[in-house]
Amino acid sequence: MSDLNQVHYNKKVNKSMEAVILNAPGDLQVKEVTTPIPGPSEVLVHVKCTTICGTDIEIIKGSHLPRWPRKFPAILGHEWSGEIVGLGPMTEASNFKLGDHVAGTSHAGCGACRSCLTGRYNLCLNYGKDSTGHRQYGHVSQGSYAEYVVNNIRSLHRMPEEFPFEFGSAVDPVGCGLWTVKRASVNPGDTVVVLGSGPIGVFAYECAKALGAGRIIVVGGGKRLDILSEQGAEVVNYREGGVPEKIDDLTRGEKAQVVLETAGTTESFKWTVDCAGKGARIAITGIPDNIPDLAWKRVVLEEMDITGVRANPNCGDEVISLIKNKRIQVKPYITHSFPLKDYQKAHDVFVAREDGALLVNLYPGT
Ligand SMILES: [Zn+2]
Ligand SMILES: [Zn+2]
After folding, report:
1. For residue 131, how far is its CA from the centre of ligand 2 (angstroms)?
2. Fold of 174-308
């Protein structure tokens, strides 16, 4: 039994650390802040690599206020990897050791509610209630745009020693791709349409391929489509218009057995049903500002299943195995790297989709 006040460190940890602070919507600043101290069931991790997520961009803009962040200043970031440098009390259950390499995910459920007890901690009934132990890092709790981050042992996945930190920080977005594909029950040989060519779209593509899809058509735009083509995807440029008609042409009118929506625009939301064939399964990850009407008559008469997708519960270890054994690719999608202190530059590159920006990685302390 560990001492409740005791934190074990394996190296000297500075009292202050470099972090990217969001002071107000659109107001980012690189600044020294106090290094956090892990509490019960928590560890302190030295962040080695952290990746920009499309959700971060929306949070920075203020699109998710007042839910995310709950207060300013805030430290965002939830796609990351690093090395454990401090073990808080009651962390024995994880068997984590000082020096272990870990990949983070954003959700840590309370562990006690009905959702958590049935493995659906992404739907924790105590969402946002800190006192119950619930955390969502980089959303309502401190995230990884910093030299150090405290995480609950429930939101960390052990990485093999030889696993590059760049792959570790992709575990969360790959997990979102995997959960999307699982929610839509991709079967061997299925024709899958992925709407969106951003990070979740490319990993939905990779995971659909790993799960045996026969044919995968990705609808997206810009240089991202070139990267996907090189990886073997069939691509449709949405900017040329007529997306559902193109899917019809490509499938001789059969449409897709599975449609995965990852773009979150009004058009792509509508195209889910428009690209789906009889008996299709549809999984939706994005929520547009203006939600369009869908072809509900077809949904009913053609027995379509529509499922929502939130984050990626219990996918981290599976993702690490898929990456380690080369069932899915990460490297081709890493397009940019910056020191953390150049966050604003990295942010602008991601937003402008410069050179097809997909995984834009940041390195604290460099
Ligand atoms: Zn994310
Ligand atoms: Zn819970």
Report:
1. 12
2. Rossmann fold (3.40.50)
